[in-house]
Amino acid sequence: MGSVDKKLQVLLVGSGGIGTMVAYALEKGGKAEVAAVLRSNFEAVFDNGFTIHSVDHGKIKDWRPTSILDSIPSVNEESWRAPYDYVIVTTKNIPDIPPSLPDLIAPAIMPGHTAIVLIQNGLNIERPFFSAFPTNPVLSGITFMGAIESPPGTINHHNHDRTYIGAFRNPAAKPNQKDIAIHAAEDLVNAYRACGPNVDCTYEPNVPYSRWRKLLYNASYSGVAAILGMDTSRMRFSEHIIDDLIRPLMQEIRATAKAAAGVELEEELIETMITADGYDKFFKPSMLQDVEKGRFIEFENLVGEPLRGAQRAGVATPTLKVVYGLLKGLQFKAMEGNMEEVMVPRSGEGLRYGGCGKS
């Protein structure tokens, strides 16, 4: 991916809270140069840089990565530019809303060279990238960092950065491709952890375990928070939300991981995840934040994929199924509010449930 003397060339797609802290760590370590693609926050950051309040790095004002971009660059059209060693994606993964992420980043990918790093939650997120970029390493990033951007250009980083990077297993990859992917993951970890001892970035050899482990939290707390409009502290205070919803969801995910993927999640992990957030934080998972802002929500890979895996493996997941149905309803509301082509007709004629039954 890079030599001892040459800094890694990194393109970051998704410079919100998490993405900006990843970029800052890489630049601070001195082993990488980051070009960050910004969207809604471009003007604020271009004019004033980022203001960062970080539990790991302190307060930083007027910080900018090496380059600030407002669109995905094309390696074919900008032949003068060195190819990117890594494209790191920290955007939400919303496969049910176009455009697809592989299509979005395709212009920046150098076949056979660029490693694609998905610092995202959920299952099977790598599969579309295997198909679109068969000669490129695809890496998994799992982070337990807490960071939000509010207002644009201001990052509040409140939970310590613990990030795990490993290589997704590509069944179609040749042996040398697998080795290349592992080395790409190790090189990125070394560049990341060079920023100092406050950041814990680790090479993860067991990617399936790490992704199912985090799914215990994401498939339970994130979805229920979005549905109820409630932070995790209030759920814990209520007690019955934990007993009737969160713990059953975690138990269903644990059973599915074993039956569908052969992943053994320790039973005590459930209690660990239930109290993972500091109670005094009154933490709102990002899915709840997106609902509050009328945005599309990231739920297919967090809830839909484990549900489909459970169905194939014959595992009963009644709570997960109900949560999935409710989240699909929230996504429909967001689609109606954000997509012109989604318009509810005034007449029910021709619709499956459009008729008026006689009582």
- Which structural class should the secondary elements be placed in? alpha/beta
Task: Give, in spatial order, the strands making up the sheet with the most strands.
Answer: 5-2-1-6-7-8-11-12
Q: Radius of gyration from the CA trace?
A: 21 Å
Total beta-strand segments? 12
What does this entry look like structurally?
The protein is α/β, with parallel strands linked by helices and 359 residues long. It is built from twelve helices and twelve strands. α3 (101-105) links the parallel β6 (86-89) and β7. α6 (207-228) crosses α9 (268-274), α8 (240-261) crosses α11 (300-313) and α11 packs antiparallel against α12 (318-338). The radius of gyration is 21 Å and the shape is globular. The protein starts with 7 loop residues before the first strand and ends in a 21-residue tail after the last helix. The model has no long low-confidence stretch (mean pLDDT 95).
Set out the fold topology.
Blueprint: E1 8-13, H1 17-28, E2 32-37, H2 42-48, E3 50-54, E4 58-63, E5 67-69, E6 86-89, H3 101-105, E7 115-119, H4 127-132, E8 138-143, E9 146-149, E10 154-159, E11 162-167, H5 175-193, E12 200-203, H6 207-228, H7 232-238, H8 240-261, H9 268-274, H10 286-292, H11 300-313, H12 318-338
Parallel strand pairs: 1-2, 1-6, 2-5, 3-10, 6-7, 7-8, 11-12
Antiparallel strand pairs: 3-4, 8-11, 9-10
Helix pairs in contact: 6-8, 6-9, 6-10, 6-12, 8-11, 11-12
